[in-house]
Amino acid sequence: MNGYQLRIDVEGCADPIWRRIKIPAIISFEDLHQLIQTLFGFEDYHLYEFRIKELGIWIPGGETDIENQINDDVEIVDNLERIADYLKKEMVIYYHYDFGDDWQLLITVEQELEGVEHYPVVVEFCGNNLIEDCGGIERYQEIILSRDDLDINFDLEDINSCLSLLGVDEILNNSPLKNEFIEILEQLKELVKKREFTDNQVIKLVSNQTTYWVILKTLEGYVIELFETYNDLLEGFYNLANEGINNAFCNCWTILLSEQELDFDVALDEDNYLAAFRNEAGYIPCLLEVEEARVILELLKEFANGIKEDQNRSESDEIIEIYVEDGKFKESAIFVHEPQIDLNRYDFGYLGEHELETKRENTERLCVDVVCLPMTNTDKTNELNVYAVIAGESDYLIKEVDFPSLQIIGEALIDGLLEYANRYGKPQRIVVNNLNVLFLVLNFISQYDIDYFEDEITLEIEGAIMDAFGLETADEAFNDPFIQELLEQLDGKSEEEIEEKINEILANMELLN
């Protein structure tokens, strides 16, 4: 793994305090900030910034006030940007921490390295740790001269032991392996184009291991989803009304084979047509790590060998079974496929924290769903907040799901339904458009003779979410720049054109869900 050797000096101290460290090049400026906090005994209580004067860039951290410090001569760079895109040998970076105590550190790029560990390693140091909230460097020097009970010794072995836990995995997009990935994806793109289908094809690939593949045809090109198990295929594809990714339930790998340039900067190829992601329930899609990508690459090669020789053309209610042996196509067949749902997988015997206490009937349309929303630190962890949403015609109820799993999500849905029913009356029926949700509450609604039907519920669920998280009035919604832009686009359009545009937006929103 490529990396750097840095020397980090504390400025303004009478006796030298510095650390020499080797780091992987793929870390971000935020990671570098966290590393400096560890190296000097800080506790990350305050704001920070990096400046690289020779590049004219400023990297503000956390909630640093950007508006009042904008300078036309300075380019603002996000603190999640990789340092490798900016650092080079002999460059000097200025690090400023705690704008009150005013700690100033100087970072010198001493060497560009190859073969570094995937975690930081301190190779040399001088001086003790610093003290958080002590008043800055001058006050620090006074304190260490007047007291001998301070626990500020720098323990090299202990620090390196801690740093070994901060390893970063190299991602495919920054690895030489991506060239092999691009080659197989370009081959797959041509093979998929030759297959005759209008919507999707589902393929069961039997080789050293059995995997499940869904090829989706889109306006932009093709999407391939790889599922490790049949249950993953059910929960991430067959159980979803919109046949798209649902971050609360979907576990798969997604490959984009676009015919148009992708509008994000995480594509594998320079032309921005090919991309690969991992989808894990409860997280936003993330780029593949190299070790993971090696496994997926071999599966993609087997898949390519399988569909290259397969001549079957399936309908939406069929599945193609392809056998590959020693990397070579053996045989294939096509079957009508009725999803085999194991309802026991969704039934955990939970009927609610409380009993249904009312005999009143509620005839309103009651929509039930599970949604994922970003957390304040999603940009760092990829983790999402998961919510069970009960949306009626007169009110709604939203319950956050901690540590989401099928069981915990199911319990949150059932508790939400019970609470809503005890407040407004037992619903005659619930409305769902995600069968995972239905199966999780099926035993509960059967117990209380509550019916169900499938229908589109996006407007009700999104309305509840918008209201719960701050868009309480229509005026607030119309102040949203997206809404304003949409209104401008729809101005003067016919009813048919307006309906077509709104349906297009809703479809895109479902794909992003």
UniProtKB/TrEMBL annotation:
Species annotation: Thomasclavelia ramosa DSM 1402
Q: Which Gene3D superfamilies match?
A: MM3350-like
Give the matching PANTHER family: LEXA REPRESSOR-RELATED (PTHR41878), TNPR PROTEIN (PTHR41878:SF1)
- The record places domain Plasmid pRiA4b Orf3-like at 3-146
| SUPFAM superfamilies the record matches | MM3350-like
Pfam families, per database record: PRiA4_ORF3 (PF07929)
Question: What is the phylogenetic placement of the source species in the record?
Answer: Bacteria, Bacillati, Bacillota, Erysipelotrichia, Erysipelotrichales
Annotated protein name in UniProt = Plasmid pRiA4b Orf3-like domain-containing protein
Top-level lineage group: Bacteria
